[in-house]
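ARCHIVE CARD
Drawer: 12
Card no.: 0347
Subject: one protein chain, sequence and derived structure
Cross-reference: see card 0346
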Amino acid sequence: MIKRSTRFGSITFIYIIIIIGILVLINFISMRHHLRFDLTKNKRFSLSEQTTAILENLADTMKVLAFFKKGDSVTLYYKGRLDEYAYKSEKFSYEIIDPDRNPLLAKNYGIEEYGTSILLYQDKTERFTGTEEQDLTNAILKVTKKEIKKLYFLSGHGEPDIDESGEKGFAEVKKALGHETYLVEKVVLAQIESVPGDASVLIVPGPKKPLFSVEIEKIRAYLAEGGSVLFMLEPQLSPEIKKFLKEWNIEVGDDIIIDRMSKLFGAGYTTPVVSQYEEHEITKKFKYATFFPLACSVRPGSEEKSGYNVLALAKTSPSSWAETDYQSETVKYDADKDLLGPVPVAVAAEATITKEEDSVLSRMVVFGDSDFACNQFLHLSGNRDLILNTINWLAKEEDLITIRPKEAEASRVSLSRSEGINIFFLSVVLYPALLLIIGVFVWRRRR
């Protein structure tokens, strides 16, 4: 007869074997399929829609050679990021190489410091530093794009400077467009014969002085050749631009948009909040609010014009209105003069222009504000994605229209003086004292 202890030991051994088998199976499955939860506010550790789309559309295999010191905390973080890329696409692979252990390979690639990565794709090589998603995705865009397009920002009329790093400058837009692999330059149309022939998009960013009639004529000629123009305007617009935009069946109001909802977001009444977008390539899958400090209304003309397709792209909340008597001390809605919300603040337009036997497609987007894209407001909610998506559409780069990686945000906790004292008392005084009392009580009971 089998002893009870032997039978118990056999059962225990079988249980251990079963548990080990389950753990091995779980590990085997997790190596091929993993489930992660990103609880950070801006989904910092999840790949963006832009990166996912790029990886899914890779035409060939791609490899990253990461020259990092093995075992370092930065290396481990970067490896986790690279794992996400490799998980999204079978065509993406990577190798982490310690330059100290493989000096010959490091020398062949000209590696002089830790933290340098080499991206290999087809016959192209791209060198970059950094461990964030933006750094790697930017490098992928550079090697996968067939053509580097050029953007020109109009200058000479008091427009924000693309090299200005202050609050009202456009340096952040220039930097963001560089991440989208565009080349960005300034242009003074009054000094040249025509819009440069290599311009994919001409951007008019909030001119404070009227454009000369000869400049408007150059823009008209550029559009007739199939060009694309982005107007970012301001209230009290010069009549020359208004008259020109009417040719495209676009009406710009002599008003300022007032929005009561803005107070809920800590903004003033003259900063309308936009969360209503029409169905368009620019705003597909767009779910973020955008803010337009001091904007005027921009809407399609009341009558359709043959050959021109104009769509109201973004609208303010129903609690807003376009105030025409904005120079008075008291501002209130007047049904006879003002436009009740939702008020269009941007339009997108296409025109098929016939030239002899051929026809060309021209594009235009008009915003009733330019400040939303300045350094101060660019990273506010969806402003950055909206301006970049707009320029990608105008440049006929629809595959780049998406939601981009978000920058890391510092998490802060604000406490009042009384809250700080309470937390100190609980964590430093009360809880340790309670543990000490329980310990003394248990000790005395055992004695």
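Annotation on reverse: The chain has a mean pLDDT of 85. The chain has two domains: 49-135, 150-400.
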